């Protein structure tokens, strides 16, 4: 319900076919896909509900914080997610204005036509609109040429600091895992020293196994995880046809999941 190309029910079916026994659904800044995913769930698969919260450090570095197993009725967290979503619309207007000035014909209507009902607006939808208009031939080409964080068309948007997001997740009874923290090809990344404030805020885990981490980066993150006794996770970061990532190309060891899940204030894994 954000920038993936599968519906929640399609995702469940594909995960089942891939033999996944535990699946996390983490749309960007929204929980609107939870109900449909739960309805599609079949016996034999457990579902972990969450959201990937867009954050930004004081130095302007983009961070994605996974909130898992939190109370879906927690007003403070829901309000923050809504605030982030609303800001995405004004941000999109500003990016489109920059593209238009450069002679690239695209409109907010073109972008909105790429959204499914209830989806969270983001740059991948702009990429899809650019494809539809014939400006580029793929999302990857759109981001490489026009939409990456260092592009002259890039516009930042409101987001909480990662520490604030962690505190909101924890206050809602969930667990917080930082996603792909060393994915340097996406832009500036945090340092190992940055984890001190994240851990102090309540960080529970680190996404280590991810296709955007090389072996050296994984080794560095493992050292950080061991030093702070954090759970170690792996993720496909699957977005349907929107990315080359495949379901279950990286997974989380059962022992690490149990360590992470035990830190939530209630048992919220969904199973049929």
Please explain how this structure is put together.
The chain folds into two domains: 51-85 and 159-261, Metal-dependent hydrolases (TIM Barrel), CATH 3.20.20.140; 91-147, Orthogonal Bundle (DNA polymerase, domain 1). Helix 5 (123-132) packs across helix 6 and helix 7 runs parallel beside helix 8 (195-201). The radius of gyration is 18 Å and the shape is globular. The chain is built from ten helices and six strands. The chain is of the alpha/beta class and 272 residues long. A six-stranded mixed beta sheet has the order 1-2-3-4-5-6.
Fraction in helix = 25-40%
End-to-end C-alpha gap:
22 Å
- So what's the overall shape? globular
The H-level CATH homologous superfamily of the largest domain, spelled out, is Metal-dependent hydrolases
Instruction: Tell me which CATH architecture of the largest domain applies here.
Output: Alpha-Beta Barrel
**What is the alpha-carbon Rg in Å?**
18 Å
CATH class of the largest domain: Alpha Beta
Q: Which characteristics define this entry?
A:
globular, TIM Barrel, 39% helix, alpha/beta, 6-stranded mixed β-sheet, 2 domains, single chain, 272 residues, 10 helices, 6 strands, DNA polymerase, domain 1
Topology:
Elements: H1 8-17, E1 22-28, H2 34-40, E2 46-56, E3 62-68, H3 75-101, H4 108-112, H5 123-132, H6 139-147, H7 162-171, E4 175-179, H8 195-201, E5 205-209, H9 215-228, E6 231-234, H10 254-261
Parallel strand pairs: 1-2, 4-5, 5-6
Antiparallel strand pairs: 2-3, 3-4
Helix pairs in contact: 1-2, 5-6, 7-8
């Amino acid at each position: 319900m954000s920038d993936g190309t599968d519906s929640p029910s399609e995702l469940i079916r594909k995960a089942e076919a891939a033999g996944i026994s535990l699946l996390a659904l983490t749309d960007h800044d929204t929980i609107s896909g939870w109900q449909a995913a739960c309805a599609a769930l079949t016996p034999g698969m457990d579902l972990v509900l969450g959201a990937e919260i867009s954050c930004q450090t004081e130095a302007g570095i983009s961070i994605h914080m996974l909130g898992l197993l939190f109370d879906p009725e927690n007003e403070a967290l829901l309000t923050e997610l809504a605030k982030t979503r609303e800001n995405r619309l004004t941000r999109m207007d500003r990016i489109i204005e920059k593209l238009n000035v450069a002679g690239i014909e695209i409109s907010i209507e073109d972008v909105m036509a790429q959204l499914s009902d209830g989806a969270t607006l983001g740059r991948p939808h702009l990429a899809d609109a650019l494809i539809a208009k014939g400006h580029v031939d793929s999302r990857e080409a759109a981001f490489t040429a026009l939409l990456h964080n260092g592009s002259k068309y890039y516009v930042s948007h409101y987001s909480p600091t990662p520490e604030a997001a962690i505190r909101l997740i924890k206050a809602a009874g969930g667990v917080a895992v930082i996603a792909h923290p060393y994915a340097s090809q996406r832009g500036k990344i945090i340092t190992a020293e940055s984890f001190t404030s994240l851990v102090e805020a309540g960080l529970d885990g680190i996404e280590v196994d991810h296709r955007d981490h090389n072996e050296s980066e994984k080794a560095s993150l493992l050292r950080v995880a061991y030093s702070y006794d954090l759970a170690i996770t792996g993720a496909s970061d699957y977005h349907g046809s929107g990315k080359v990532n495949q379901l279950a190309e990286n997974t989380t060891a059962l022992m690490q999941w149990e360590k992470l899940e035990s830190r939530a204030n209630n048992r919220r894994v969904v199973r049929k």
